[in-house]
Amino acid sequence: MTLEICVYLAGEVHSPWRDEIASAAEKAGLPVEFCAPVTDHPASDGAGDHLGPEESQFWRDHKSAKVNAIRTRTMIERADVVVVRFGEKYRQWNAAFDAGIASALGKPIVVMHPPEHTHALKEVDGAALAVCETPQQVVEILRYVTTQV
């Protein structure tokens, strides 16, 4: 018997970690559906542009952040598990925010980041049910969750 789950993949957009997890899960035959935020920077930055032009970059960002939040909140609410990846190069405030939303909703959180971020992410790690470093470790967690029923 297996358990089908939906996994939201939050976090950094500068590496192929989402594809690595999805590919490995598919190869392993895991019953997992993945969803994620928009990872195309121009599309995400312009998510609110259809609501009308803005003279100020602040207000353009403000509108786009709200439109993006509709997608993010909806997907996190529907997810059974939330994986949050913090990359090595950029500060991912959005990833920390997504982890906070997931925590507030009582969603199981798996955090993935390099060891040198442990101190900076101690609060996020504290809210997580698992902390790992690689996509393969995430897949092994998903294997356990979906097949040890």
Description:
The protein is an alpha/beta fold. The chain has a domain at 5-37 and 79-147: Rossmann fold. Helix content is 46%, strand content 15%. The chain is built from 6 helices and 5 strands; from the N terminus they run E-H-E-H-H-E-H-E-H-E-H. The protein has helices at residues 17-27, 41-45, 57-78, 93-104, 122-127, 135-147, and strands at residues 5-11, 32-35, 81-85, 109-112, 130-132. A 5-stranded parallel beta sheet has the order 2-1-3-4-5, sandwiched between helices. It is globular. The chain starts with a strand and ends with a helix.
Secondary-structure blueprint of this entry?
Blueprint: E1 5-11, H1 17-27, E2 32-35, H2 41-45, H3 57-78, E3 81-85, H4 93-104, E4 109-112, H5 122-127, E5 130-132, H6 135-147
Parallel strand pairs: 1-2, 1-3, 3-4, 4-5
Short description:
By secondary structure, this protein is α/β, with parallel strands linked by helices.
